[in-house]
């Protein structure tokens, strides 16, 4: 496993003065999937960890490191792995779970050994990893996309007709903090999470995927009256603090995985922002 990239929390009054390079350095994760490695980013906002495992040969073992501060990675954490690549396998304390594309696995606190494999190294799995501090142990469970709670939103007229698939969610399985899911669009729709909102009680992370390599997503962030944007390529992720809006528009079709941690797991706990208040 490569060294964990550590990101400090940023005050919104400071972010107002960040240039493009600073915004990207603090909030954009450019290399989520690195062939043959586990690449992780540790955010001091809610102690959230995200990253990717992309096995191309031998199994990749999830190991602890200094920022984790425990003898094993999941001694005091929970984990979700969402596959957006080829057929993969996650082994948890000797128990194997095969994950097809868009399958997910929740791993409870206390698991001692976690390893990631590709069933066909020529078409490697891309396991998107999400982890937050935990206070209790919940059962490890695989969740197929078809088992998700589906929430249709938006319309063709506003180019944001989409279905939110709530996967790691209290209605599906118990977790301590983690809430995560996948948003998929109808043909011709490219806007996500608009009208936008904030939720100061929970941070969020976005992974954009299924975006053609020569296309981009313009991710909107910042305070509602001090908005900024980041230009995001395929399979790059955004760290979104609770005070920031989080929305985006693509130059082509795409999907994204959202994940949250914080004070509650209430998906509807949002502070909506009127379009007339955006600046």
From TrEMBL:
Cofactor detail note: Binds 1 zinc ion per subunit.
Pfam families: KduI (PF04962)
Record field: catalytic activity: 5-dehydro-4-deoxy-D-glucuronate = 3-deoxy-D-glycero-2,5-hexodiulosonate
EC number, as in UniProt: 5.3.1.17
GO molecular function, one term: 4-deoxy-L-threo-5-hexosulose-uronate ketol-isomerase activity
Chain residues that bind Zn(2+): 197, 199, 204, 246
Gene3D superfamilies: Jelly Rolls, pectin degrading enzyme 5-keto 4- deoxyuronate isomerase, domain 1
Top-rank taxon: Bacteria
Pathway assignment: Glycan metabolism; pectin degradation; 2-dehydro-3-deoxy-D-gluconate from pectin: step 4/5
HAMAP family: KduI (MF_00687)
Record family assignment: Belongs to the KduI family.
Name the record gives this protein: 4-deoxy-L-threo-5-hexosulose-uronate ketol-isomerase
